[in-house]
Amino acid sequence: MKRCYLPQPGDHAIGETERFYTRMAEKGWLLEKRGAFLSRFRKGEPVKALYRVELAPRAGLGEETGLPEEQVALYEDCGWEYVTGRGLIHVFRAPADAPVQELYSDPAQQAETLRALRTNAWLTLLQVPLLVALYLLLTAAASDSFSAALMNFADEWRMSFVTSTGLMLFFLCFLAANLYFSIHAAVSLALLRRRLSKGLPIDRSGRGQKAHKITAGALLLLCVLSLALCLAQVGTGRTSPLPKEADGPYVLLEEAGLAGERVPVFLPDREGKIERSASLLAETYDLYQPLRTDGGAGYALFERVYALRFGSGEDIARALQGKALAGQAGGDGWSTAAVPGLDRVYLAKNGMEAVAVKGRFAASLTCIGGPPDDTTLEALLQALGQRWG
Fold first, then answer.
1. Looking at the structure, do residues 381 and 250 belong to the same domain, yes or no?
2. Helix H or strand E segment including 196
3. Rounded to two decimals, what is the model's pTM?
4. Are the C-beta atoms of residues 305 and 377 closer than 8 Å to each other?
5. Does the pLDDT at position 328 exceed 50?
């Protein structure tokens, strides 16, 4: 027996749900099971049938319908066959030409059954703002102030957009779609409850749905396009061994006057490599270079360079400082320095880290190893100024 699965209207769309199952029956697809997002149909002869939705509390453990047995028996005595149920939604069916009585003779009585569904809709609508507020509160508790938490939150978002534009666009489109559907559900339920309270039955004509379908379709299309963009960006990433000479807007330890062999130093199992990736907003170069000098000193360079397509490298400088060991931008862990060829340089007081900015370029460098008074980091910054200049 053939079966098919199709997306179903939301729990709040009672009239639309009844019309959906009625249209499918006319095409020869009879409802078998209602899931979280999809309904299962079995192939049969086209029939004219009526579907009605009844709301009830969630089923207890071991119960299938969640409806009292006497209520189901009463509906069946009136000519309604119980089909399926999930959560608050339970579906009954009857032949279109059968002299059946409606589940509710008084629409105002049915309005009272919408309370649980309305509560679920508002909880769904509020969950995103509540999660964001909880995140900010937890971040503020770990920061000096709430304003610092907001700055860190903004920096994280800015960097995420720069490095993973497709993923962030998909997340925002998905969030917008979820917010729209939640608002639509809450408003639809409020209007439906008001209609039923006035003694008017559920509108099963489908009027006034065109704008909603266009908006919903546009949001879903944006989600699909942004997901495709996200997958395309993943395909741009590539990892390769370090070249002998820099072939991009980055520098190598040899350009700081060091000579030696590129062998693992502080991380025995990690060879030098460079990862290149591209997004809509930037090209990123992420490299690690170990070096054992001819004199026996060990060095390790961690470098990440961003070539922005729009804006200035200064826009992400604070975020780069926040990701470094020295701590957040504007704190006591950083000082500024002047390096020829660079617009601005931030030096960490630990002597190992720096953030450099020039036009649309920004870079974070961490250089470890060498004697206590080693000047390799300063030499790398000067080489970077020449490269970007």
1. yes
2. helix 165-197
3. 0.74
4. no
5. no
